[in-house]
Design brief:
The complex is a heterodimer of chains A (401) and B (379). Chain A is an all-alpha fold. In chain A, 62% of the residues lie in helices and 1% in strands. The two termini of chain A are 48 Å apart. Chains A and B meet through helix 1, helix 3, helix 4, helix 6 and helix 7 of A and helix 1, helix 8, strand 4, helix 9 and strand 6 of B.
Chain lengths: 401, 379
C-alpha cells in the first residue's frame, strides 16, 4: 500500500513517542540474546554430533553472552533495583514478560551447561542443562522480534511478519560465525553450516521485509545512520558468506568469515533499532499510512480484538484466548475465577483478560472473598492500618510492595 | 456493541465507565486544565521555554504533562463565490452596515462569518455558531447544502502552500473584515483551533497490554492507571501507545500518565481538569452518556453549518475499541497531532507470536541439522 503523498501534522511534531531504551544496552542485548540462544542450540547439536570442542565453545559463548545481556537489561531499566518486578506476573500479551520468564529459565541453564563443560564436573547435570538451554534458546533468540514489533513504532510494527526470521537468521549467523572463528572450519563444520544457513535466511528475510514495507515504509531502514549500518551489515554478510563457503579448510579464511558474520549480525540489530527510532520521530511514517487507510470516508478496521471473539455476554470473567484451544480458550474448568477479582500476594495481577490467569503465585482467595464482602481481608494484613476502609469495600487496588 | 473494559478485567460490581468528552469547539485555550492537573497531582515542572507553536509552550503529553492544550492557527485566502463576492469598499461597508441588523451577529463575528452574502438572508442560523461556520459563504447554503460547499479544512488543504513537512499552516495574511476598508491586499479567513489533549484511556490499551510488571492496570471505572510502586521503568509502554501519551520521567525513572484523577473520582468528585475548565469544554461523566452528548453536539454543529466538526475515538468499532476520552474536533485528527486511524498493537500480536514460534522452531531444526551434517565429515 502506498501511503498518501501528502499529510498534515501538528507543527511537524512526532505523533508517537520514540523508545527510551538506551544504546548500546538494548540493541546490544538484541545481538547478545540472539547469539546466546543460537549458541545453545548449536552446543546441543555439537554434543550430539560428537564435537566436544565446538560444544564447549558454544556453551561458553552462550553463558557469557547471556550474562552480559542481563547486565545490559538491568542497566537499561529506569529503576534498576526493581528488576525482579519483571517476575511479578506472567502476561502473554507482553513480549517483555514472556521474555523475562524465558530468560529466567534459560540463563541459569546456560550457565550450568557452560560450567559443567568447562570444569568437567557433574556431566549428567551439565547434559540436562544443555538440553534445557537448547530448548529455550531458540525462543530467546526469536522473541525479541515480537518485543520490537509489539509497539506503535511504524518501522517495527509493520515488519512484524518478517522480523522474527531476520532475528533468528542473524542469531544463527552470529553463533555459527563465533564457532567458526574460535574452532576453525576443520573441526567446526557444524558452526560453518549453521552460519551459512543463517546468513542466507537473514538476507532473504530482510529483502522480504524491505519489499513489504514499500518505498516510504522502508525509508527508515535505508537512510541515515540506520541505512549505513544495514548496508555495512550486508557487505559483511556477503564477504563472510563467500569466505565461509569458498574458504574450505583454510583457518584464516574461516576466522575472517566468522568475524565478519558476527559483526554483521551486531550491525543488523543496531540498524533495526535506529530505524525504529527514526520512524517514530517523523510523523510522516505514522500519519501517512493511517490517513491512506482511513481515507476521507473514515473506513474502519474491523474490531478483531482477540478477547472479543465470541466472548460470553454475561461478562462473568472468562475470555477467549486468541491462540489456544481447549482449556485456554474456555478457562479452567473449576471456574474459581468467576465472581472475584483475582489478587496475588504481590498485588494486582493485572492483565486485560485477553488470556486467563495462570496460577503462578498462591492466591489468597479467602482474602479476596472477604474483600468482596466489604470486610478487611485479615486482621494482620500487611498495611491494613494504612489502607482506608473504602478501598476494601470497593475491592480497590491494594498494592503490596 | 461496546466493550466494558472493567468487566473484562474481572471487576464484578463496578461503577459505570467514566471518561472525558472534550468539545474543542468551545475550548478557549486558557490552559486551566493543564494547571489544575499539575497542581492536584503534584506533577513536576517539565520545561519552561517558548516553542513558537502559537500559544502552545507545553508542546506535548508526557510523563510530567498529563493535559496539553494544542493551538493551531489556520488562514486561507477568502474565495470569491457568487454568494461570497470579493469585499469591495461598498460591500465591506454593506456587510459592516448589515452587521447591525438584528438577525446578524456583531461586526467582529461577521468577519469570521466569512461571507458578505450572509447579510442578505434573514434566516441566519444562530449567530454564535455562525462564527464557527467557516464553511464557505452564505448561511443560506450552509444549512441546506453544507456538503456541497467546500469546508474550511478542504479549502485550506487545497490552497495553503505547504510549509516544512506537511504543516497545515499559515500565511501571515492580514485579516479582512467588515468595515476595515481597503487596508488589506488579500482578504483572509482565520480560524484558531484549540484542543486539550489527554490520555485516551483506551478500551484496548496498548500500554496496559505490554506492561511486563503489571504496573499498568485497569481500574473499576474502566480507566488505565500506573501503579508507581510497581513500575520499574522498563519503558515498554512508551513506544506502545499509539498516541504518544505515556512517558518516562527522568527524575524518578518511572512511567507516568493521566490517572483520570482516580483519587478524586473514587470519592465522587470530578477530575481536576474538568472541574477547572471554564467553558465545560472538558466534560466528565459516564462514557455512554458522553457519547450521546457528543453525538447531539455534533449534529447541532452540523446543522449550524460547521461541516468540519467530527468526533474522534467515539466509535467502539475503531482500532482501540473506542476511547474513554472522546473528542469533538474541527479538523482532521493529524492537525491536532492525533493519529488519524490508531490501531492498538495487540491486535497483531497473535500473528507475531505465530511467526516467532515458527522462527524458533526453524532455528532449532536448523541447528540440529547443522550439527548432524558435520558427523560424516568428521576426521
Amino acid at each position: 500500500m502506498v501511503p498518501a503523498a501528502e499529510f498534515r501534522s501538528y507543527y511537524g511534531r512526532p505523533v508517537i513517542k520514540e523508545p527510551v531504551w538506551k544504546v548500546p544496552e538494548v540493541p546490544g542485548y538484541l545481538f547478545l540474546g540472539g547469539l546466546a540462544g543460537a549458541s545453545s542450540a548449536l552446543a546441543a547439536a555439537s554434543d550430539l554430533a560428537g564435537r566436544p570442542e565446538l560444544a564447549r565453545v558454544a556453551k561458553t559463548a552462550a553463558a557469557g553472552a547471556i550474562s552480559l545481556s542481563a547486565v545490559a537489561l538491568i542497566a537499561d531499566l529506569g529503576r534498576p533495583a526493581r528488576f525482579h518486578h519483571m517476575l511479578r506476573v506472567f502476561k502473554p500479551t507482553s513480549p517483555m514478560s514472556v521474555g523475562s520468564w524465558l530468560l529466567a529459565g534459560y540463563g541459569p541453564a546456560a550457565g550450568v551447561a557452560a560450567a559443567s563443560a568447562l570444569t568437567g564436573l557433574l556431566p549428567g547435570i551439565g547434559k540436562t542443562a544443555t538440553v534445557a538451554a537448547a530448548a529455550l534458546g531458540p525462543g530467546v533468540a526469536a522473541y525479541t522480534a515480537a518485543l520490537l514489533s509489539d509497539t506503535a513504532v511504524p518501522a517495527w510494527h509493520d515488519a512484524h511478519r518478517e522480523l522474527p526470521y531476520v532475528f533468528v537468521g542473524s542469531a544463527a549467523m552470529a553463533a555459527g560465525g563465533l564457532g567458526l572463528l574460535m574452532v576453525g572450519p576443520d573441526r567446526g563444520e557444524p558452526a560453518r553450516n549453521l552460519a551459512v544457513a543463517g546468513a542466507v535466511a537473514e538476507v532473504a528475510a530482510k529483502s522480504l521485509l524491505i519489499k513489504r514495507l514499500g518505498p516510504v515504509g522502508a525509508e527508515p531502514y535505508q537512510s541515515g545512520r540506520a541505512g549505513r549500518l544495514m548496508e555495512a551489515a550486508e557487505i559483511l554478510t556477503a564477504a563472510g558468506l563467500t569466505a565461509a563457503v569458498l574458504g574450505g579448510r583454510n583457518r584464516v579464511a574461516g576466522a575472517l568469515a566468522g568475524a565478519a558474520l558476527v559483526t554483521s549480525s551486531a550491525l543488523t540489530r543496531f540498524g533495526i533499532f535506529f530505524a525504529g527510532r527514526t520512524s517514530s520521530r517523523d510523523p510522516k511514517y505514522t500519519i501517512a499510512p493511517q490517513r491512506a487507510r482511513a481515507g476521507s470516508g473514515r473506513e474502519r478496521m474491523p474490531a478483531t480484538h482477540p478477547a472479543d471473539a465470541g466472548r460470553p455476554a454475561s461478562g462473568d470473567g472468562w475470555r477467549n484466548l486468541p491462540l489456544g484451544r481447549g482449556w485456554l480458550r474456555n478457562g479452567p474448568p473449576n471456574g474459581r475465577m468467576a465472581g472475584h477479582r483475582r489478587m496475588s500476594w504481590t498485588g494486582m495481577v493485572s492483565f486485560e483478560g485477553h488470556f486467563p490467569e495462570p496460577k503462578i503465585f498462591s492466591t489468597q482467595e479467602i482474602v479476596v472473598s472477604r474483600m468482596a464482602q466489604g470486610r478487611p481481608p485479615t486482621a494482620g494484613w500487611r498495611g491494613s492500618h494504612r489502607r482506608r476502609h473504602r478501598d476494601y469495600r470497593r475491592g480497590g487496588v491494594v498494592t503490596v510492595t | 456493541m461496546s466493550i466494558d473494559p472493567a468487566a473484562r478485567a474481572g471487576y464484578v460490581d463496578h461503577p459505570p465507565r467514566m471518561g472525558f468528552f472534550t468539545d474543542t469547539s468551545v475550548c478557549i485555550g486558557c490552559k486551566a486544565c493543564e494547571v489544575a492537573c499539575k497542581e492536584w497531582n503534584a506533577v513536576p515542572e517539565d520545561g519552561l521555554s517558548l516553542s513558537g507553536m502559537s500559544y502552545d509552550n507545553t508542546v506535548g503529553l508526557g510523563a510530567s504533562t498529563w493535559r496539553h492544550v494544542a493551538f493551531i492557527e489556520q488562514s486561507i485566502p477568502r474565495r470569491e463565490t457568487p454568494s461570497n463576492p470579493a469585499p469591495s469598499e461598498a460591500s465591506s461597508a454593506a456587510s459592516a452596515g448589515s452587521a447591525e441588523t438584528p438577525s446578524n451577529p456583531a461586526p467582529s463575528e461577521a468577519s469570521f462569518a466569512a461571507s458578505a452574502g450572509s447579510a442578505e438572508t434573514p434566516s441566519n442560523p444562530a449567530p454564535s455558531e455562525a462564527s464557527f461556520a467557516a464553511s464557505a459563504g452564505s448561511a443560506e447554503t450552509a444549512s441546506s447544502s453544507a456538503a456541497s460547499e467546500a469546508s474550511f479544512a478542504d479549502r485550506l488543504a487545497a490552497e495553503v502552500p505547504k510549509g516544512p513537512p506537511g504543516q497545515a499552516i499559515l500565511t501571515a495574511g492580514r485579516v479582512a473584515g467588515g468595515g476595515s476598508g481597503g487596508l488589506v491586499s488579500t482578504p483572509q479567513e482565520i480560524r484558531w483551533l484549540m484542543s486539550s489533549d489527554v490520555c485516551k484511556h483506551c478500551t484496548e490499551a496498548g500500554c496496559l497490554d505490554v506492561c511486563p510488571t503489571g504496573a499498568l492496570m485497569r481500574t473499576e471505572f474502566g480507566t488505565v492507571v500506573v501503579q508507581d510502586d510497581v513500575c520499574n521503568g522498563c519503558g515498554y509502554c512508551i513506544p506502545a501507545c499509539p498516541f504518544g501519551v505515556i512517558g518516562r520521567r527522568e527524575s524518578d525513572g518511572g512511567a507516568h500518565k493521566c490517572t483520570l484523577c482516580y483519587d478524586r473520582i473514587s470519592d465522587g468528585m470530578m477530575p481536576a481538569c474538568a472541574k477547572a475548565c471554564p467553558t465545560e469544554s472538558i466534560q466528565f461523566g459516564p462514557v455512554d452518556e458522553l457519547r450521546q452528548r457528543a453525538a447531539s453536539r455534533l449534529s447541532s454543529l452540523h446543522e449550524a453549518g460547521v461541516a468540519d466538526a467530527r468526533l474522534y475515538l467515539d466509535d467502539p468499532a475503531d482500532g482501540i475499541g473506542g476511547g474513554g476520552s472522546l473528542f469533538l474536533l474541527l479538523d482532521e485528527p493529524e492537525v491536532y497531532g492525533l493519529p488519524p486511524d490508531p490501531v492498538v498493537t495487540t491486535r497483531d500480536l497473535p500473528r507475531m507470536w505465530r511467526h516467532v514460534a515458527a522462527a524458533a522452531a526453524a532455528l532449532a531444526v536448523g541447528a540440529l541439522a547443522a550439527g548432524l551434517s558435520g558427523v560424516r565429515g568428521r576426521s
